[in-house]
Automatic annotation (TrEMBL):
InterPro entries in alphabetical order: ComplexI_NDUFA9_subunit (IPR051207), NAD(P)-bd_dom_sf (IPR036291), NmrA-like (IPR008030)
Gene3D superfamilies with a match to the protein in the record: NAD(P)-binding Rossmann-like Domain
Protein name: SDR family oxidoreductase
GO molecular-function term, one example from the UniProt record: protein-containing complex binding
Superkingdom of origin: Bacteria
Domain NmrA-like span(s) in chain numbering: 2-143
SUPFAM superfamilies xref list: NAD(P)-binding Rossmann-fold domains
Organism: Amycolatopsis dendrobii
Length: 258
């Protein structure tokens, strides 16, 4: 029988997709959430990576920890809590961590925290695998939806490579079932698209017709995006396109995050 895999953030966007993928593959799965939950085929355990409560119980006896939880303010601290609990468990589980393409190039606070967490894991002595992925469809949609509410839609001259969370989940599950590999190749969506192109797709999906206006975006972060630091065109491994993602959600009556 396969070793049990712990999925942190099991009730989150990525965690849910990973848990479903593991269940479909009939892999024993334990899922960590801050609140008590129950679902068929999943052993749920309650714990909080911010305080450490219940984390020692969560990691006990598992062969692999697939870390899907994230904390925009305390990413490094929560990863350190997980690493220390895994180390003290005596099991030395394989730790699989998902990071962001461009974490080492874009001076965003969250990206810098992700890079610091990568370094913490790599220097921990734990068997590990680190995967960087491009931005999820849902994040790109949320960013564009805010601009699309305006009478005229401002679009900076950036490019994105949005990826479906289910494609990332499939890759993570494959890595979790293999041997630790350290930092692996980045994982990107199937298409590199301009912001204007993606905005047109979102407007079309919502039944709106608005004028797009190119806008300058000064600063180091903007220069990084303009240079494509957030892209992995040589690893366009995802399958689901932005249009397919939008179509699955039907024709919304309002532009909002789902």
């Amino acid at each position: 029988m396969a070793e049990q895999i712990l999925v942190t953030g099991g009730s989150g966007q990525l965690g849910r997709a990973v848990v479903e993928r593991l269940r479909a593959a009939e892999v024993p799965v334990r899922a960590l959430s801050r609140r008590r939950r129950s679902s068929e085929g999943v052993q749920w355990t309650a714990g909080d990576l911010r305080t450490g409560r219940g984390i020692d119980v969560a990691v006990a006896g598992v062969g692999t920890v697939l870390h899907c939880a994230t904390d925009y303010r305390r990413e490094v601290e929560t990863v350190r809590t997980l690493v220390e609990a895994a180390r003290w468990s005596g099991q030395a589980p394989h730790l699989v961590y998902v990071s962001i393409v461009g974490a080492d190039k874009l001076p965003l606070g969250y990206y810098q925290a992700k890079l610091a967490a990568e370094k913490l894991i790599a220097g921990s002595g734990m068997p590990h695998t680190i995967l960087r992925a491009t931005q999820f469809h849902s994040l790109v949609r949320t960013i564009l939806a805010g601009a699309a509410r305006l009478p005229v839609v401002p679009v900076p001259k950036f490019r994105f490579q949005p990826v479906d969370v289910r494609d990332v989940a499939a890759r993570l599950v494959g890595l979790a079932q293999g041997e630790p590999r350290g930092r692996v190749a980045d994982f990107g969506g199937p298409q590199v698209r301009t912001t204007a192109d993606l905005a047109r797709a979102l407007l079309a999906a919502s039944g709106k017709d608005k004028r797009l206006v190119p806008v300058p975006a000064p600063g180091r972060i903007a220069r990084g995006y303009a240079a494509g630091a957030n892209l992995a065109p040589e690893h366009a491994d995802g399958v689901v396109t932005f249009e397919q993602y939008l179509a699955e959600r039907g024709k919304p009556t309002a532009l909002r995050y789902r």
